[in-house]
Structures are given as structure tokens and as C-alpha cells.
Write a structure and sequence with these properties.
The chain is of the alpha/beta class. The protein contains 10 helices and 6 strands. Strands 2-1-3-4-5-6 form a 6-stranded parallel β-sheet, sandwiched between helices. Helix 1 packs across helix 10. It is elongated.
Length: 219
């Protein structure tokens, strides 16, 4: 893929869409050219931007996973549609999408799926369901108390689109150290990927006011 992959995101949760935009924009071969939060707007953006790939939330307000992919391709025939859906059994592909990705997929899995559909390949990314969702009362405790200062700093950088490798380079620590911080914050937040962690951070205001150092020699 010699040219930048142009993306349009369609998700009904603005905080999640913003976190997703930052993560995907951080990929050197991706550029996000539009974000929609409802079914009517997504078809309009597809026609206006003619993106390489459109990431479509299966639960998009005002949308219909059985019809929206077809409407998108009518507006932009060269656009590939990647459905973000809890079920990856092929329903979305049968409805006209070019692939499906489960919401708990990692940022790397999502990026790989985008590149696969651009190359004309089928992309199906399934993620094992958690045993049980975190209780809402526990969420507040996690937000207020359990993350260390360093884990909050890492979360803020992830929300800014930084990769694990870039954090390690800026802080002069090993990649393994950064991965440990990331894994710890995922466990504490009760989420299963960096995408979910970033969405959680935006939804709960966890990145506001965090002082992130440019260089740090200890972890």
C-alpha cells in the first residue's frame, strides 16, 4: 500500500470514536478524514471523502447493519466496510461488509484488519468474551484509587495515540516495562485492549490534568 489509507469512523459513542481516531491517526499509513455518530451522517461522509475503509459500528444510531454497508458502497463504490460488531460469525460480511472486528480487539488487530481489507482480503477478528462485565460500583473505585501515577501517565499517552515503543523510547525504559504498565492498567480498569482503555479514559475524564513528563529515567 503506497498511498495513505483514508479512513472514516462511524461510532455512536463520541468518546470511543475520538480515542479510536487518535490511535489510528498514529499509524504512519493511516489518516482519519471523517467521524460520524449516526447512520445518516455516515453515508454522507462516505460520499464526501471516498475513504479507503469505513469502520462501522454495528449498533450505530440510525443505522442498520443489514443495509448501511450497501448504502455506503452506493455512495462510494471503492470503499471497504469493516464492521465493528460483537458477533464475528460472518453476518456483517453477508450484509455487504468486507470484514468484522470484535469491540475488544487490540489496536494492532484492528490495524491489521484494515490493511487486510484494503488488500482485498477477508478480515474477521474475534475476541473471547469476558467471564463477566465489571460491576459499575467497582468502576468508580478503579477510576478513583487503583491506578498508580505511572499507569495514569501511560494511559494519558495511549489516549494521545502513543505506541508502547514510543513511550519506552521517551522514558528510556524497556519495552517490557511499558507492556507491564499497560497490562496492569487493563486489569485494573477491567478492559481487554488498549482501545477499550482509551475509551474508558475519555468516558470517565481520566486523562484530564495528568502531567505527562517528556523524559523519565525510572519506571
Amino acid at each position: 500500500m503506497g498511498q495513505a489509507v483514508r479512513l472514516v469512523l462511524a461510532d455512536g459513542h463520541p468518546a470511543f470514536a475520538e480515542g479510536l481516531r487518535m490511535i489510528l491517526d498514529a499509524e504512519v499509513d493511516f489518516t482519519v478524514c471523517g467521524v460520524a455518530h449516526d447512520g445518516g451522517r455516515v453515508v454522507e461522509l462516505a460520499g464526501a471523502h471516498r475513504p479507503s475503509v469505513l469502520l462501522l459500528d454495528a449498533q450505530l444510531p440510525g443505522g442498520d447493519p443489514a443495509r448501511t454497508p450497501t448504502a455506503i458502497k452506493a455512495a462510494s463504490p471503492t470503499t471497504k466496510v469493516l464492521l465493528l460488531a460483537a458477533s464475528t460469525r460472518g453476518d456483517g460480511i453477508a450484509a455487504g461488509a468486507d470484514g468484522t472486528v470484535a469491540p475488544g480487539a487490540s489496536s494492532r488487530q484492528l490495524a491489521d484488519a484494515i490493511r487486510r481489507v484494503v488488500d482485498g482480503k477477508r478480515a474477521v477478528v474475534a475476541v473471547a468474551k469476558p467471564r463477566r462485565p465489571p460491576r459499575e460500583s467497582n468502576v468508580e473505585l478503579l477510576r478513583a484509587w487503583t491506578l498508580s501515577d505511572r499507569e495514569r501517565e501511560v494511559l494519558a499517552l495511549l489516549a494521545g495515540g502513543w505506541s508502547n515503543r514510543r513511550i519506552a523510547q521517551e522514558w528510556h525504559v524497556s519495552l517490557a516495562t511499558v507492556r507491564t504498565h499497560v497490562q496492569n492498567l487493563l486489569v485494573k480498569l477491567g478492559v481487554h485492549s488498549k482501545l477499550e482503555a482509551v475509551a474508558f479514559a475519555y468516558q470517565h475524564g481520566m486523562t484530564a490534568g495528568v502531567d505527562v513528563p517528556r523524559n523519565r529515567h525510572s519506571a
